Amino acid sequence: MPLALLALAIGAFGIGTTEFVIMGLLPEVAGDYGVSIPTAGFLVTGYALGVMFGAPLMTVLGTKVPRKRMLMLLMGLFIVGNLLSALAPAFSVMLIGRVVASLAHGAFFGIGSVVAADLVAPHKKAGAIATMFTGLTVANVVGVPLGTLVGQSVGWRVTFAAVAALGVVGLAGVAKLVPDMPRAEGVRLRHELAAFKNVQVLLAMAMTVLGFGGVFAAITYIAPMMTHVTGFAEGSVTWLLVLFGLGMVGGNLVGGRFADRALMPMLYVSLGALAVVLALFTLTAHNKIASAVTIVLIGALGFATVPPLQKRVLDHAHGAPTLASAVNIGAFNLGNALSAWLGGVVIAAGFGYTAPNWVGAVLAATALVLAFLSAALERRDGAPGAVAAGSVPAEEQAVAVHH
Question: How many CA atoms lie within 13 A of 386 on its CB side?
Fold first, then answer.
């Protein structure tokens, strides 16, 4: 594997860390700025909305710029956003920093996937893409818990400054190790937009919003829930996030393995089980061992939906999947934003820190209903809707490997 993949993996590690680390630091940030926990939750919502709008926007802009240069520009945005967050004198400025950093998220993974695939021989493309996304996976097992620990020990500003430094390393790596690549030719926006006329594409994206939103409803407020309800010490949030990260890794692997074999049954099982586990979290949150097990299951079941949902979007937008794949990255983050906001609403309404779990359960259950509806429409139309994997250009498949 070429060293250029290491540079992409470092960038992915930094992006994954900055996306998720804020959840473990909400109490500290809220305390420093003198705002409530639900208000601090807008830092999650703002980032998610930035990814939602930034993913398609930056992907479209990226078609006019050589890929290496676009990756460097995206890492530059990421660095500026995290530095702004680290130095922000007011909550509003930090929110702006979060949004700036988020603009790099979706396009970096989309364009980076294509670059990774182009760096190796055809029979190694999947391995190259997986190597890049190892950075995102490791971020949730190592970067996020470590960033939480640092933030709680020496200050959350240090965490964001360290993430910005990671961005500098990633930028230098891209500049030094990634070869120059020509910009994509023959890209027509109207062909890409046509994919959104397909009701199955829209249903898959709705499932993405609601299903993954169920995960974030609970996990956004994991720090106050575990400390105020379960009785964990503040420092315990670090290893609880490690458990969540390990669940993510396992769920992602299982979801990827079965997405090709039985896509819809995989969605039925994962979404249905996720809804049940989230509902039960309102009870298990009162017990330390039960809550720890539940956090692992939420990570596993939530991320088990990612590969089948990404593949379903790709299957039904097979004529022009690049923009649809980027928008689906945004759809995951729309779910994050929606659920973080709804979770804050029920907490602010006085229902307690476990109330977001019910929000998540309802969202996941709604996604399950849409999955059954999608399958019923597919049976009615008498066509599977999916094309053979080989009929999709490898570069376009690469874009949709991960959210």
Answer: 21
